[in-house]
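Bumping my old thread because nobody answered last time. Still need a sequence for this structure:
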């Protein structure tokens, strides 16, 4: 027990020596330095990590900016191309504008030329108009003179016709009594005698016989039946007697044939009449004496007197028969009946 107790005293004495203290001091300094370095290392590592992250962030920013710059460069390139295209368009538009301006100037020049020509033509027109008006005035005077002469000739002709009718009636001192089978005249001797005088006065000889060949009443006013019966080329010298619902008795006579669709026929002996008014009108245009069409009945003149089925139309002023009025108006009227007769003359 005494030995154990003394050992510690021995150690204590050693510690208390100057060498031992110095070693402890250095050890402490060494440890302190180590701690500081560790702390510095740890601190540096943390800063390095932060700087690394910052660098990485900066790299991302730089990469993004680089991409933006690339896009901007591409856009700039594209804009440059568009600018070039627009410059070309502007050049083309300038050329077009120049062309339009030139065309405009040409049109202005043409307008001036046309305006000058128009004024020249208008002056010529005015001078020609004066000449034409003078010529028209002279021609009007000539036409008036011709019209007056024609009127005088028509009056003379009408007077001659009246005298001729009078002479015809006087020359036929005694007309033989002719019998007519006519439901329209109904044995009216005065009307039959008047017709006989008119027929005998056309210089074809004395009337020998008046024969009924067609009655519209019996054939239901059928135009085809009229042409079938009366349109034979051998049947000529036909007398047409028409009775209207207003009791007018009118008609006509022709030497020509009523052949279907023979159209216009010549006859200088043709005449139309109104028995009630004892009026006979000679043909004035022999080349248009009658008109024959399959769909119509008898037609005198160029539609002066037209029979169509059971209708009759007469022009107020006839063209082929002396520009005269037959005396029943120009309106269409209904027909009670019309009859066709052939006239047989005694040879001269």
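Sorry it took so long. Here it is:
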């Amino acid at each position: 027990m005494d030995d154990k107790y003394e050992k510690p005293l021995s150690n204590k004495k050693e510690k208390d020596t100057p060498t031992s203290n110095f070693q402890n001091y250095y050890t402490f300094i060494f440890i302190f330095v180590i701690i500081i370095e560790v702390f510095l290392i740890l601190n540096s590592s943390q800063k390095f990590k932060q700087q690394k992250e910052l660098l990485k962030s900066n790299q991302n920013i730089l990469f993004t900016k680089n991409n933006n710059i690339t896009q901007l460069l591409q856009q700039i390139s594209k804009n440059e191309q568009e600018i070039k295209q627009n410059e070309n368009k502007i050049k083309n538009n300038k050329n077009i504008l120049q062309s339009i301006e030139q065309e405009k100037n040409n049109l202005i020049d043409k307008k001036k030329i046309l305006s000058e020509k128009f004024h020249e033509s208008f002056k010529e027109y005015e001078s020609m108009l004066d000449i034409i008006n003078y010529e028209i005035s002279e021609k009007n005077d000539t036409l008036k003179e011709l019209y007056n002469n024609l009127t005088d000739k028509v009056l003379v002709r009408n007077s001659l016709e009246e005298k001729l009718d009078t002479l015809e009636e006087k020359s036929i001192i005694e007309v033989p009594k002719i019998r007519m089978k006519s439901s329209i005249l109904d044995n009216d001797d005065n009307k039959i005698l008047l017709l006989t005088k008119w027929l005998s006065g056309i210089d074809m000889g004395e009337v020998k016989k008046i024969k009924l060949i067609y009655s519209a009443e019996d054939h239901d006013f059928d135009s085809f039946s009229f042409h079938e019966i009366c349109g034979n080329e051998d049947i000529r010298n036909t007398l047409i007697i028409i009775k209207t619902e207003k009791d007018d008795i009118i008609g006509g006579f022709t030497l020509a044939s009523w052949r279907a669709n023979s159209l216009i026929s010549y006859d200088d002996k043709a005449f139309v009449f109104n028995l009630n008014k004892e009026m006979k009108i000679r043909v004035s245009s022999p080349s248009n004496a009658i008109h024959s069409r399959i769909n119509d009945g008898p037609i005198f003149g160029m539609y002066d007197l037209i029979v169509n089925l059971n209708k009759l139309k007469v022009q107020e002023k006839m063209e082929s028969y002396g520009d005269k009025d037959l005396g029943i108006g120009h309106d269409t009227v209904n027909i009670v009946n019309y009859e066709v007769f052939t006239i047989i003359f005694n040879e001269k």
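The chain has two domains: 1-126, 178-345. Let me know if any region looks off to you.
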